[in-house]
């Protein structure tokens, strides 16, 4: 359909979607370094957190493989996005993450052993001793989006200069919760940033089968929320665009939807076997876009990083992760009756006998 | 102090809570200028502003989810679902999040929200506007389910629900929204959220009920009294957690129990009460525990809705059966 | 954001929304008459069905006001859309209507007395003796959209040249069901047309509070489904655009979203009082855009319609409606036990006693 | 005929139905190339094509709604919900449409759909992947709820569910997906959808159960046998409609009943069974009806899940209590 006044057809509205990148796949700058990099050490910080995240992630997979932890969802290849979020957010902001946002969570003071505990089947992995406001991951996909709107509404009502950042995947964009939340954010101009990580897969469903929309960024148009794409393996661009959206929201500018384009390098979870539904070639292709390697090459070329630095960083990260593993493995089971201790603020009388029963149950014979 | 209706008492409690606590906010479809389709929120937006009493788009999932997000930030959201027939899109948020966040985070994040919804039949409403599915909520751990049946209890239980640190589903029996008036003192006094209310003292049979059926049940008790039969009437009021102690004590005294509710029979709150009697009260029972309930069929459209809803006769007939049984 | 290669910003996608009209508010043609009008009597047909619909609608309101029927949702002012749909669909297509699609329903052989029965609280008002496939209205807003996708999927799988037409309101566009269905239709290129009637109100919520999106048509962009606006009080444009979308879907061209712009002239339902939330001036303004008057003036100016024709049409319509009222008021209540007769194909043994109980229950004393 | 597991029996029945009836289609998240996260649909897409075995986007509301639309057009859709924890977004469609369309249209539009979902705990799954909320569905009129507990019953009940002219929620106890193998003959024979299966004959106590708890219950029966106590074991199998006749007949014989289920206690299917016993079986009861159930708390994450799930000991202890009571 095009403008054609003679046939009674008038143009009403236009929308455009853009993509941005700073450091391309050859580690070349294709744009000036964004403002945040003026802060000394910013790039090194991003790099270090990506490596730390990957070290943690690899250990988590290893723990699962050796029977020391349950199913786990790796973030391999997506570290740039989590780290960009973690770096761009302020402490007082609130993160509502998916299960692949380990980078952001670690930067926001979630302890490594807490994440291990979570995937080890222990609720204390969500108690976040050093992070009191962030949400634990929402397992029902996209159901965290409405929460983010509520958090942002509270911030706005109280006139606090704070922002809610909610992350979700390409698969999550097909769910009504996402759209309903987006629409609310638009109407109330809420201080919330939607980071829609397009890693091209939702378990076995490829991005192109998820929606006929050409981009995920354009989903914002449905709600009057500006949307844009960014190279999700370019941590500098991610940090810049996400940071910009966060500060816009903070200053009353309303919500933004950002679609970082990346790739899920790992299986969906340790319980998944991605070779059943995607080709080796595809995975190999994306390996060449690795976000960590990309920044490292740039840092090295600019004499900001050396082999020795790398060795030191890896050693530090491993030591840190190992220490967390020790805490994790050394954490005693909760007392069985604890399953009643956080059910309500005060356990209603009606359930006292149940708590007693669990407490006194001896064995747990299930044959 | 003027006499007010149940729906006016809800309004009074909401106003009181909005007044007392800046964290309280009220939102939902048409709750603003329109004052809610039943006028439960009448005048609140004018009094407390558009930011604390907000009209929302039609989207029950996000309404529930936003309440959770607000509550997690320490607010006390009261979200209205326009009718219970439209609450189901919010169930995922309630069962998977509202009822769980405290437990998941070992108490770090809590969800002091209230979800209000008018429910039940008998007002000649259109299709899908007359169901009673409180049992689905009573099955969910980590939440409370409260049903007021008088203006005073509506006021006191609503205040309690808003002040409670955990999520409360607050179901309002719309058939009796305006059925009786009662003097309600706006003293900010809350009622307890985990006890039944004994409406009549009796010795021959215990009638247990909640919601609009309190109306028929009290009438049945009157008629029984005329026949020389003394019926104790209990309004469960807090469906979850369920105060079985009061019910068991009553049945220990009367030896007979008839449970009356509008909801479909299978896996209802009535089933839970009867099951508890079969487990903990069996030896006191002189007669089978009878349930006079809605049927396990679709709530009919309004031309037949009163064939579906338990009638005084059905209650009386059940009581007589329990009296004959022993 | 705009294209800016020097800053690494590239344009990815563009979208446009158009609006069409044929007969403007002054009953002037602003475009050539569309193809469907070449069929003799097409315009007169549209006109007659609009008048018939309005006559029916007014009677339904009167029945409610006099206590002979329950709550009713009038379609006053929106007749053009329903009639355009009814005219554009083929008999074998499937309509999934809202409660304001009386025009389309009547054209699709739903009997007037059936609609009265429905609002009179009787399930037989959905049994549609002469229309076996169309859905009854879905009271939970937007929940009919997923059904339409399922109906369309079945049509497509069976390679039948049929189309599902689903209608919904501006309020319905905020609900996840709508978006989830739209997305499915996009992915599978389903033969379904979404008619999103923007009547500017959802009970007391104005269109601008419903979404920050500039148009509702653009919501299609989120799902890769083409969207467009049409003047919803211009029955010729509605018939042309909806017809075009239906034939496109029929021939494998996939889904379309059409947003007719109109106005809810009545209260939301007979239980509503719209003066609580909207101004008289607004209502008056829209009265001047009345779809029936608009076409009548055109027909009269072109000597296709006379006072006498009008008088005859009104008399016929009234007689038809009165006959339906008679059937409605003469319809006996269903037997109480019928509440079990369509619960399952065969009532399970477990519920036999309940059916017996209802059947034998004498009075229904509720005090 | 090779011996197969329960999940393989589901697969076999789906293949059979797809083969026999062109109206049958299977869809859901990851059911195609991936064969379903539990492999229940393994190989079906390769065999029956992408149009009849479709991977779908992640959107449970529209999945349920599409099944309804397809069924209304005379197809026989079998839609998979990946885990019961994600079924809640589909509830609105099930309660407000699937279960009602036949009734609303007086039989004009029917909904012969099946919604499959794995459910229950005990496989060390992540959070939200281990719940049992069958009672919420059992409360809804107009649908059937079926739970198989052996490969043969999975095969026969699945075929029956697909052929049934009304909506069926088919819940698969994933803990026992691969626990036992059994010879299953692919003869296309369906099993009835409204009777319990008696797994053991007994005279001292009736054990009523369903789902994965059949496993513990049968073990408890074995142990009781060793102690000289004869336990009858009933697998309810079709939770809705509930075949109380079989249960009542058994309890009339044994005089004692222990109900065992994983789901939370309040308003569970166990409550419904106990309530029926309190109403129709009271005079045959020698002892209180005991429920050994999941607790009214959040299903714990997997480190504690076996503290939540009823154990053989808990069952035995309940049985002993009922034996002592009289
Ligand atoms: C509502 C819901 N449905 C289904 C699932 C099962 N499931 C877990 S992850 C997943 C795919 C998510 O894909 P995406 O949103 O792209 O995130 P990614 O895994 O790629 O990070 C599915 C279907 C779920 N967790 N929640
Ligand atoms: C899911 C759901 N929520 C709430 C309602 C109550 N309700 C009935 S109509 C309506 C407004 C619908 O507005 P719109 O979609 O614009 O349709 P219109 O009435 O304008 O034709 C609401 C909120 C409902 N029927 N369903
Ligand atoms: Mg993904
Ligand atoms: Mg509208």
Write a structural description.
The complex is a heterotetramer, with two copies of chain A (367 residues) and two copies of chain B (326 residues). Chain A is of the alpha/beta class. Helix content of chain A is 40%, strand content 11%. Chain A has helices at 42-65, 79-88, 102-107, 112-119, 144-157, 176-188, 207-210, 235-250, 280-287, 291-301, 307-329, 352-360; strands spanning 9-20, 94-96, 164-169, 192-197, 201-202, 205-206, 227-231, 256-261. In chain A, the strands form two sheets. A six-stranded parallel sheet of chain A has the order 1-7-8-4-3-2, with helices on both faces. Chain A has a two-stranded antiparallel sheet with strand order 5-6. Chain B is of the alpha/beta class and 326 residues long. Chain B is built from twelve helices and 14 strands. A seven-stranded mixed sheet of chain B has the order 3-2-4-5-7-6-12, sandwiched between helices. In chain B, strands 9-11-10-13-14 form a five-stranded mixed sheet, with helices on both faces. In chain B, strand 13, helix 10 and strand 14 form a beta-alpha-beta unit. In chain B, 75% of the residues are buried. The model of chain B has no long low-confidence stretch (mean pLDDT 97). Chains A and D meet through helix 12 of A and helix 3, helix 8, helix 11 and helix 12 of D. One magnesium ion binds next to strand 5 of chain C. One thiamine diphosphate sits between chains C (98, 100, 139-141, 169-172, 199, 201-203, 264, 268) and B (29, 58, 60, 82, 86).
